[in-house]
Amino acid sequence: MPIKFEHVSHIYSDGTPFRYVALQDTNLEFREGAFTALIGQTGSGKSTLVQHINALLLPSEGTVYVMDREIKAGSEPKGLKSLRKDVGLVFQFPEYQLFEETVLKDVAFGPKNFGISQAEAEEKAKAALRLCGLSQEYDERSPLELSGGQKRRVAIAGILAMDPKVLVLDEPTAGLDPQGALSMMKLFRDLNQKHGKTIIMVTHDMEQVFSFCDEVVVMEDGRPKIQTTVQEFFRDSSLCEEMNILPPALIRLKDALKKNGFEIDEDVKDIRTLAKLTAKQVKHHG
Hints:
Blueprint: E1 3-12, E2 20-30, E3 35-39, H1 46-50, E4 61-66, E5 69-72, H2 80-86, E6 87-90, H3 103-113, H4 118-131, H5 148-160, E7 166-170, H6 178-193, E8 198-202, H7 206-212, E9 215-220, E10 223-229, H8 230-233, H9 238-242, H10 249-259, H11 271-282
Parallel strand pairs: 3-8, 3-9, 6-7, 7-8
Antiparallel strand pairs: 1-2, 1-4, 4-5, 9-10
Helix pairs in contact: 3-4, 3-5, 4-5
């Protein structure tokens, strides 16, 4: 079942001089099994929205439906423990939440907290660590000894060890070098395509959206402005420019070639194909 927001508003510090409406009358549905990017300017409501998906924040108005659960304004949500098992939320810099003596103990903490045995929790932790590209040699190391990218993988493994159906990522590659960010995005793509995880990712990186995501939701002033496929969103750069978003480099290059008279297929998605297509037409533009 999908994740659905019906007339959801969220107000911080209501009834005080600091009252702030972060979400207003939001209607939105995330498709099950999709890799969806949530984009928009700072303050548009992205992080507030995703924290409703596992009830870290509750709606001031409206209802959030998460699979077979209903989170309704004014009502105490039920089954929070099972909800947070099914919906794993990865914050920016999740490695700051590492606290155990060893990597294995840290990753096993989540599943153990859901009532399974120590041995089973460790087996789940090991499987999650291998999935995240960390070999057995890391199991007994202190998280404090690891690099930033390795810590990020351990933190994500801690979420995956609980085998969530939905993975919510809030700027998951923030602070990583380009190679580390690319490696992390490939992991998320595999989790989506090979392991069937529904993924919702808050990001400012249009290259990641273009290369890895299926769908795009644009937030503006606390509500969704656009929801469409990645292919449609990046058909040309005008939509990004309207929102002061820098389009991916490939889109910018395609637009420049079109302006210079080249015929470029809208479905071209990689630089090699674009180069071959351009090379065939160069002699006509000499």
